[in-house]
Design a protein that fits this description.
The structure is a single chain. By secondary structure, this protein is α+β, with helices and mostly antiparallel strands. The chain folds into 2 domains: 4-133, no CATH class; 141-223, no CATH class. The protein has 5 helices and 10 strands; from the N terminus they run αααααββββββββββ. Strands 3, 4, 6, 7 and 8 form a 5-stranded antiparallel beta sheet that branches. α3 (33-53) packs across α4 and α4 runs antiparallel to α5.
Length: 254
């Protein structure tokens, strides 16, 4: 799972799966759904921060010694649904105030109810937390390198790895086309908890596989050999929660 701080937990496609009219409404009313995703993410972050500040160490598992912070929050299904319905509420609120269409207001009210419901369910279940968070990697830089890799266009993504061998979410894939050469990949500055990185390569974006046997060191470059390994695992979605953080039940607007 991705971390909450990696970006909005839900995507436009996921919103459209919850509301089949979303894309038509956004197009008709000139609503930027991406900006609504980001606004809902910012609002949820402020809400979660306030809730985490009110948590008590007495409610925490003895081994969960990490002081809870937004950087430790993993995106769970409950958190994703809260964010998604809050985003839909914002979209239909804009649509209503643009046209004063009662149908839009009815949907806005319904999505507000669902956002509040899923926020309350999230509080009941608690937040999924990771002890050593690794943020989503930025896209690595690619350059041509000496080698005889078959001429083709290659897709590459990468992940940061922490000292527990846990991977963060993978970077947006980048591409390079080779001509009588291979290629080299280099990561940018490492985040605080990163102890290495993994590289995934394929000839299509859905076929990328792990290339390195052990994590590469921070600052090390990867030069692709004369073959592409297809036996490695596919890129994951980030860290799974290590524990659940109980949250105080304080009524707030969804």
């Amino acid at each position: 799972m991705a971390l909450f701080t990696d970006g909005p937990p839900s995507s436009i496609d996921e919103l459209a799966a919850l509301d089949s009219q979303l894309l038509n409404v956004a197009s008709t009313e000139g609503i930027d759904v991406t900006s609504k995703l980001e606004l809902a993410h910012e609002e949820a972050g402020l809400d979660l921060y306030a809730l985490l500040k009110r948590t008590s160490p007495a409610d925490r598992l003895l081994w969960a010694v990490v002081k809870p912070n937004l950087e430790n929050v993993a995106v769970t299904r409950g958190l994703k649904l809260w964010h998604a319905y809050r985003t839909l509420e914002l979209v239909y609120s804009d649509a209503y105030y643009s046209q004063l269409n009662d149908r839009y207001m009815a949907k806005c009210n319904r999505f507000q109810e669902l956002a509040i419901l899923h926020r309350e369910r999230l509080i009941e279940a608690g937040l999924g937390m990771v002890s050593v968070p690794v943020p989503r990697a930025a896209a690595p830089s690619l350059t041509a390198a000496l080698g005889s890799l078959p001429d083709n266009t290659y897709y590459l993504t990468a992940t940061w790895v922490n000292r527990l061998s846990e991977e963060g979410a993978s970077a947006i894939p980048v591409t390079i086309t080779t001509t009588a050469s291979s290629f080299s990949a280099q990561m940018g500055a490492a985040p605080a908890n990163a102890s290495g990185w993994n590289v995934y390569v394929g000839t299509d974006p859905d076929g990328m596989a792990l290339q390195n046997g052990v994590p590469l060191g921070v600052g090390a470059a990867w030069v692709q050999p004369v073959w592409i390994s297809t036996a490695g695992r596919k890129p994951g979605h980030g860290q799974a929660p290590d524990y659940v953080e109980a949250l105080p039940r304080i009524l707030q607007r969804g």
